[in-house]
Amino acid sequence: MVFSDRLRNGRSRAKAVTTLSVVWLAISLIGCERGKGGDMAKQATATAPPPAVVVAEVVQKTVPIYSEFVARIEAKETVEIRARVQGFLEAQHFTEGTVVKKDQLLFTLDRREYEAQLLQVQAQLAKAEADLAFAKDNATVESAKANLEVARARLGKAETDERRLKPLAERRAVPQQDYDDAVANLHAARADLESRRASLNTAQVNQKSSIEQALAAVAAAKAAIAQAELNLSYCTIRSPIEGLIGERKVAPGNLVGKGEATLLDTVSSIDPIRVYMGLSEAEYLHLAAFYKKTGRLGSPVLELILADGTLYQHQGRAVIADRALDTKTGTLSIIAEFPNPEGLLRPGQFGRVRAATEVVENALLVPQRAIQEIQGVKSVLVVGADNIATLRTISPGGSVGDLLIVRDGVKPAERVIVDGIQKARPGSPVNPSVVGGIPPAAPAVGEAPEKSAGAAPAKTAGGK
After folding, report:
1. Across the strands, what pairs with 92?
2. What's the pLDDT at 39?
3. Per-residue b/e over 428-440, b at no fewer than 16 CB within 10 Å?
4. Cα–chain-centroid distance for residue 192?
5. In this structure, are residues 59 and 416 in contact, taking their beta carbons and an 8 Å threshold?
6. Is the pLDDT of residue 255 over 90?
7. Is the whole model's pTM more than 0.85, yes or no?
């Protein structure tokens, strides 16, 4: 038993030693193969030509720094087209979503009711004018005046008879009855004169009152005609401004204007179009100081970056700064106007307005596509005179179009790799070439910014 166990243990140990020997031999063979492969790779690397890269020189130039502000696009004028009188919408005379001219016919309402009202008030005016002419007739007053003159004549005769008979009656030269009759006729003549005078006054007052009433009726009829004509004109609805008209709210055949002015459509002027933006107090003070220093206060050149990142082709200018800061948001509202002849901009759009807010003297500019960033550290590959690529860590500043201001890390006229960065290795030679020339730098202060296909990253006021 003991011998058998020893024999089995010996065999097991032999097998284990054999297995270890085989494994070690395999590892040795693999190591040899790897060593040969590494040597071959080094030889291939040593014999391969340097990778081709595209370089650009570091440009030194005085440039402005641009800041961006969130902007809202609105129409300069927006007018709601409403039905001001009640009636059936008869027809639509425009194409929805197109530009309409000022005074262009948009809608028509049923006119028949208002035409009938106009004829009615015109008849009322004719009657009032006839009444006025009759009131101005002096026949009644002239008749009263004639009666007054007759009464005066009778009074004169009665006074003469009384004076003639009085001394005769005192001497009893005539009967007392004759004198008494003369006195009675005198009193009657006087009373008749007063009555005739009162009648004349009454006739004159009545005539004046009739004339005034007739004049008032004429004026009322004319006012009614003006109102009827106005209501009739409301049956023809025209555009008060030139602008883009939207989708109609009511289709022809519907009753509109009942109880309220029914909204039919809306027209907004779009050329020029306004852009609203809000500046913080610090941004406003910084901009005011900058534009005062550069002599462009009140008319800064602005660029508009659309929602898809493209740069709008037309430049704008600020036209209105609000009276005061909004106490709720702490911002000052600035209104700019941009030309919009193509109608690309529509009310309600959003974008970003870009404006120069600072000037950097003798800035070092590097194309942004030359920048590498690893764990927040930015660097560039600089190609020396010996065409060896060197990795440089840089201190970036603000963006200027497609270029980046570098505060430290490169020198003027040094070459940085802009294409082929992935193929280049620090400390290794490269084959540099300049293709397409050096990217344009930012414009000088006082010049309009150059147009580009894309937008630059947003910067705060002051370019910090």
Report:
1. 107
2. 52
3. ebbebeeeeeebe
4. 83
5. no
6. yes
7. no
Name the helix (H) or strand (E) containing 218: helix 176-233
Domain 81-108+237-267 of CATH type 2.40.50.100: yes
448 class by beta-carbon count within 10 Å (0-12 exposed, 13-18 middle, 19+ buried): exposed
In this prediction, residue 168 carries a pLDDT of 78
What three-state secondary structure class fits 245?
strand
d(CA 233, CA 105): 12
Helix (H, G, I), strand (E, B) or coil at 348: coil
Q: pLDDT confidence of 448, banded at 50, 70, 90?
A: very low
Q: How far is CA 121 from CA 85, 130, 224, 228, in A?
A: 18, 14, 6, 8
Q: What CATH superfamily is the domain 113-233?
A: Helix Hairpins (1.10.287.620)
Helix axes 176-233, 139-170, angle to 10 degrees: 170
DSSP 117-173: HHHHHHHHHHHHHHHHHHHT--HHHHHHHHHHHHHHHHHHHHHHHHHHHHHHHHTTS
Position 175, amino acid: P
DSSP string, 252-304: TTSEE-SSS-EEEEEEE--SSEEEEEEEEHHHHHHHHHHHHHHT-TT--EEEE
Residue 365 class from Cβ within 10 Å (0-12 exposed, 13-18 middle, 19+ buried)? Answer: buried
Confidence of residue 326 (pLDDT cuts 50, 70, 90): confident
Are 355 and 287 in contact by the 8 Å Cβ rule? The answer is: yes
Q: What is the pLDDT of residue 456?
A: 39
The three-class DSSP label of residue 317 is: strand
Question: How much of the chain, in percent, has pLDDT values that exceed 90?
Answer: 31
pLDDT in tens, 263-300: 999 999 999 999 999 988 888 888 878 777 766 555 67
Cβ proximity of 165 and 152 under 8 Å: no
DSSP state of 451: P
Domains 55-73+272-433 and 81-108+237-267 equal at CATH topology level: no
The average confidence (pLDDT) of the chain is 80
Q: Does domain 55-73+272-433 have CATH number 2.40.30.170?
A: yes
Mean pLDDT score, 48-63: 87
- Name the residue ranges covered by the structural domains of the chain: 55-73+272-433, 81-108+237-267, 113-233
